[in-house]
């Protein structure tokens, strides 16, 4: 069985966000048709130890019709399964397209409904649901955990499950060195920290970072799912529906966002950097 490491939301190796992708046989398994048992997938995700490992298999016949999609897709951090992941979906679409097993628009049945990916020139565009933003009181201890004042905070809804925190400026986002244990105690999947770009002529409208210690991800390099919340947040404030976000982690990555009502289009590049053979059985 092949396992591939793909850098997503970047056009060069060793940048963006690496994800592992495992394309499974179509046979049944304890984890559902085509999937191994959940604990086996989690063990492999922990072994790879990237922020996400994606498992995908083709759907046929009644299963395909019932799901309304051609492929079934699940995502695991080193600690748990998650409901939504953007960069690992981009990585999966990249693998299916570049290996020739899929063409055109690819539809995935996931825990967040049917998601699609299509080739967009030399990039790939994902179609994801827009995260519903609900303004909340800034949680007690958030500013202390981040080490910076928080201007406003928003809940991003059940599928994303994150807390979005707006801070003063881009320099504040870049300089964050948060208390990860304190962030994990806040009760969200992760914390998205964002600010407007210091120089909008630099090719991006806003910046962000993502911390997910509660699900085994101290800092995620580039978080596609977070941009389903960042897109409506900044579109309302900046007055445009098509924006570019720069995630200013150490690896960095750019996400082109296009708000389309209750959907967000996320566009980025991907590069395969490792192809390997899984020799231990994944049963």
UniProtKB/TrEMBL annotation:
Residue ranges the record marks as coiled coil: none
Keywords: Isomerase
Source species, domain of life: Bacteria
Family indicated by similarity: Belongs to the PhzF family.
NCBIfam families in alphabetical order: PhzF_family
Stated name of the protein: PhzF family phenazine biosynthesis protein
Organism of derivation: Streptantibioticus parmotrematis
Organism phylogeny: Bacteria, Bacillati, Actinomycetota, Actinomycetes, Kitasatosporales
């Amino acid at each position: 069985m092949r396992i591939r490491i793909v850098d997503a939301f970047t056009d060069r190796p060793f940048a963006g966000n690496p994800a592992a992708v495992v394309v499974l046989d179509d046979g049944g398994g304890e984890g559902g048709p085509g999937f191994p048992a959940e604990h086996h997938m989690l063990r492999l995700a922990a072994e790879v130890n990237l922020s996400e490992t994606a498992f995908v298999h083709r759907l046929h016949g009644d299963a395909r019709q019932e799901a309304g999609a051609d492929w079934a897709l699940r995502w695991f951090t080193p600690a748990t399964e998650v409901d939504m992941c953007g960069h690992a979906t981009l990585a999966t679409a990249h693998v299916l397209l570049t290996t020739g097993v899929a063409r055109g628009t690819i539809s995935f049945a996931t825990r967040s409904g049917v998601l699609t990916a299509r080739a967009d020139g030399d990039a790939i565009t994902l179609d994801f649901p827009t995260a519903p933003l609900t303004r909340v009181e800034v949680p007690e201890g958030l500013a202390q955990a981040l080490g910076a004042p928080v201007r406003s905070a928003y809940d991003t809804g059940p599928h994303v499950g994150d807390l979005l925190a707006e801070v003063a400026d881009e320099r504040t986002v870049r300089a964050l060195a948060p208390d990860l244990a304190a962030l994990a105690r806040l009760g969200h999947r992760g914390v998205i920290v964002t600010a407007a770009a210091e120089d909008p002529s630099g090719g991006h409208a806003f910046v962000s970072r993502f911390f997910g210690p509660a699900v085994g991800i101290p800092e995620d390099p580039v978080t596609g799912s977070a941009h389903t919340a960042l897109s409506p947040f900044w579109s309302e404030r900046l007055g445009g529906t098509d924006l570019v976000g720069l995630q200013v982690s150490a690896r960095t990555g750019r996400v082109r966002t296009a708000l389309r009502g209750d959907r967000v289009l996320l566009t980025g590049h991907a590069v395969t950097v490792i192809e390997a053979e899984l020799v231990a059985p994944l049963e």
